[in-house]
Amino acid sequence: MLRKAVAATAMTLALVGGALVASLPARAEEVLVGAHMPLTGSLGRSGQAFEAGMRTAIKIFNDASPRTKIRLQVIDDESTPAAAVSAVEKLVSEKAVAVIGGYGSNIIGPASDAASKLGTVYITAGAVSDELTARGLKTFFRINNNAGYQRGMAGLVESVKPAAVSIIASTKEAPILLARGLEKDLSAKGIRVTVHAFDPAITDFKPLINKVKLQDRSEILIMSAYENDYVGIIRAAKVLKPPLKLVLGAWSLATPKMYQEFPDLMNNVVGTSFLPFPVEMKDQEGRRFAEVFKQLYNKDIEYLATLSFVETTILAEAIGRAAEAGTLSTGGLAEEMRRTDRKTLIGPVRFDATGDNPLFSLSMGQHQDGKVVLVAPPAAATGSLAYPALPW
Amino acid sequence: MAPAHRDPRIPAPASGKPWRNAALVGACLVLAALPVLLGASNYLLGLLISALILSGIALAWALLGNLGGMVSFGHAAFFGVGAYASALISARLGVPVLLAIPLAGLCAALSALAMLPTLRLSGPYFALAILAYAQIFRILATEATGLTGGGAGLQRFPGLPTILGLDLGSRTGSYGLLVAMVALSALAYEAIRRSHVGTALRAIAHSEDATRVVGVNSVLLKAWMLLLSAFMTGVFGALNAHIIGFLEPAYAFSGLWSVMPIIAAIFGGYRTVLGPIGGAIVIYLFDQLVAKDLIAVGHQILLGLVLVVMVLIAPNGLLGLLKRRAGGRPHADA
User: Fold this and answer.
1) pTM, two decimal places
2) The domain defined by A148-279+363-380 carries CATH number 3.30.1330.10
3) B294, B302 Cβ separation under 8 angstroms
4) Inter-chain touch B50–A86, beta carbons under 8 Å
5) Is the pLDDT of residue A227 over 70?
6) What is this model's ipTM?
7) What is the pLDDT of residue B292?
């Protein structure tokens, strides 16, 4: 009798429990996305900016997605190809559905190869070499490229019609590619271009600036390099005062951070940019990004964080669509990535057959008394170019 | 009479227990096969591959240091030359990769010919001179844009091929190839060590003047060791290039390829054959699997601490420590 009563009670409890579980909202599916970034070493600052943008994008996506939640795992690749490849293999072995790539084509190349061999989607905003897309990998995607930077910078230079331009370029892969591309573009427009390549180990730029001053006598100085190089070049130019009319640079230059750290060197310097500063977001997505970024990191959004926010948002959306369609575990993510066609904070993004974004183009921003004013192209301009105008 | 305390540089008598050596070789082979037999993940195999590449360079460095008596801070030069040579020979000349790799080793040995004048130097002067050579080769690779791609690097060159159905480009295939190459290098090292040449070299390391007095051509023998060490390093540079699939001067001639093998060899015990191999595997796996897990960013600090402790408690390296614990001789075999 007692046994029957216990059995009946157990069955009732099981049924009630089952009904309760069934009535609860479906548990969100958690998906792992991996990333490898240079979090230490000379590129550590860039890697950390990338990570901040990624985490902001993931938070915004997770807040808005009831069914799919993304967990981000970031590994320090120490700017070495072997560590980056290991990171990709580790992340994929831990069931990451996609990997977000680091910084530099020397790292992205081997790492994306490893991801391709493992059939995993790989997206990057940190490598501009054309070799990467020439490989024809089916799982490789990137949102920016050398051509976009080249178009933005060449457009501004052509608009002021200089007779001569000097380019000081680091021999590292991305800067030298950009310098050679600019040399070709500007020479074709009848502008005399002189390229001075320098070893990345150089810190004293006075000999190069002397060449610009005494030999080239150019009106515009273009720096195709990285943050520390910009500072060294402008500092040397400030001492030697070549007869220039404008100093122009590439990535990570027209940022509030550079002005805050080097106010005496940055005024009137021009660099590639997506957004003016103080940030004026015209759309809902941009405003939300700025708000969450401020909330998480207590600072204003910056250049590299914007790039990684865009790539991560695009990836997260494709993951959401693939999860919805039930194809996430059957190779559907790459297909969903290829269906991407949207406006983003860096302009339109659409991937071609090689995984490149042919629509990538940049605005040019000028430091003007603590603000970054977008000065080109005319459609994106928030102010006019100060020209001639120098930091000294 | 108490036995004399033996100088570690003095030649050690050949072991009288061949079965013990055979057992050691067998144990090493079983250890090497374990990851594949246990179905290790691509991640773990990838780490082991990187560790074996480091092992190969550490062995080459130790060969020069132990037998040649020369401390090099410039093995990155041979590594980079081997990497570029193999990539270019296979991509531009269409030479099969497995043939391009030893040819790349020869190119590295040829590049070492330029360093022969440094053999007149010794101690820190030799170390500094060879360090300068490494920088020169890096700058040459950067400037020779037409050949090397300059700072933009090389990306499109063949990977490791498939031989008899075994894809050497796969993690398992690459691992097997590297185990074989490290074993071959170790055998070559051991063969030289046991030969009369090895005896003469160790005597040179002990007292070069005294050895010359008895008619040994020390400069010639040291030159051969430099060329052999360069060849071995160039081969591992070539293997790494075909496994990684990308080359740029800053990476191929990175100072890490000079410093890490020194650390690995000293950690393991650079006066032994197995010490540099074991040292490279232990420190690389410790760094990537343990230190990186404990301190995700800045894990090298932990590795540095372990190295300091190791050097303090076991100046003869890991192998020396193990022998001492096992009640063996106080010094590892020279």
Assistant:
1) 0.79
2) no
3) yes
4) yes
5) yes
6) 0.75
7) 82
